User: Fold this.
Amino acid sequence: MPPRTTDSAPERRDDDQPHPGQETDSEPSVLRGQGRAGTGGDAGVEAGQDEGSAAEAGDGPRPEPAGGTGGGHDTDPVPGAVGTAGASSPGMKARAAHGTGPGAESTPGTHDHPGAETEPAAEGKPDGRSLGPPSGHEDNTGAESAPRSHADPENDAGVDERVAAVRRAADGGRRWRAAHLAGCAALLAVALTGGAIAFGGTGGGRAGAGVEAVSAGAPAAGVLARGDLDSGIGSLQRHLRTQPRDFGSWATLGIAYVEQARTNGDPSRYPQAERALKRSLELDPGNDQALAGRAALAAARHDFTGALKEADRALKHNPYNERALCTRIDALVELGRYEDAAEAAGTADDRRPGVPVFTRYAYVKELRGDVRAARDVLERALEAADSPADIAYVATSLGQLAWNQGEYKTALGHYARALAADEDYLPALEGRARAQAANGERTAAVEALEQVVARFPLPGPLVALGELYEDRGADGDRAKAGDQYALVDAWTSLARAGGVNADLDSAMAAADHGDKKEALRAARAEWNRRHSVHTADALAWALHVNGRDEEALPYARRATATGYRNAGFLYHRGIIERATGNDREARAHLKAALDLNPGFSPLGAREARTALKDLEGTR
Assistant:
């Protein structure tokens, strides 16, 4: 699975008032059962995580899309994201790209993501708190985010234009490299046309000179609820044509574009987000909403050092800004600073307890090997959730956790609950397909992933589908698999054009299904930026496929040093140990991978079984 991307985990509304009776013990408030008064005010929907985060992403992120590369490899949302996602898709749990994750190490995390479409804030939770939806809210600014706008005929193509443009990248077999550049250019043209809708109608630059900057922040409040998100962003655009100095709505629009990029897998939206957030800060340099939006944007682009810096800036202005608190956790996770991330999660739980913080708290626990605590936190969070977006997000996080432990029937049950709450929730659709494949339901898994990539051709599901084709081995399946892998490269080019660091996604996909030298270049570049378990694993595997196993082994050991129970990491370590003559350790880790999650990857699990059989035969 791709990682939880950092740009896709949910967030609620930010309010400026401190919370009385702050808790300081290390157990999350969702497990302490102490009620808190929910925050009041009208809530607008904002962008969370993939990739994710962005996963980002993450990148999830789990972070967050940006998206992970699948095939048993955890990359950034969000996941989302841890997600990013988140986005990369990073963030913690989303599985769109990534992450982000994030995913996001996005997408790949992947979080890899680690991000739901959003709902209005939910009130009256069982524990007395208001646990908001999987995207943040701001009391003082109105609606916070939306998917792609269709406020103008030039934008009506939406996702279909993007999917068609990226898919054209893979046509022509060996000629796909030239084709994907044309596809990316077409997609960027669509995005830039959409950008003119928001910016062209405001007079350009600092319109309304001499007029005091204001933040009406209300035009899209209430209409960004799920099912009317397009109308919400259209309302923001119309409002800003008449009130171009409304800094709050500019921040809202910027965050909306981050959400569009993460949920639709369209990184070309990030430059638009950057311009909108810049405009907001020109009008009011100290507004924490825009600063937190810049943090989310940086995480979605997998600039986690920048995300941490921007989150800290936002928190200086408003220590209770939920998006900034959550992005700070995501950034620390994706930078591999797990002790600091745990401390940040405790701080966020004291200040703004709720689903966004609980899921991040759980992911930090999972990364440190405490699966029971992670599950307990998520189960209690699910009990407290009552909005469809919250339920879909947390149930999917539980499904991902169960899948990672090889508990496929349990995972399928969680995904079913997520999809009952939101039948179109992409991370749940992808996660269910992976669980079906691992559970032996290959036909259903292939059909489900084909539907997912038809809507969102992100690295995680693309590689997962390609590997299922390869494993099936029917007539034409090898060519079909090659098409999916070519699309990953097309998406990577598009992501980089949108300012996303896609090296982790590129490294993991290319190591198994592309240019091995490019995989090593990308993995080294990512390791130089951050030292997470996912980047350690990516570098170890890239070194291995390039025949440099002695160099790879220390990184493979580092990837498994935190206690994170990930079958893909264990498989990589076992294969590398076998190549370096450490047969006893190789047997132990290959067996551990297959015992933990025997369906972690169609191709990887098959290689692990073959290698283990050979090792057993030479004892």
In short: Strands lie at 13-14, 137-138. Confidence is low (pLDDT under 50) at residues 5-25, 34-159, 169-211, 216-227.
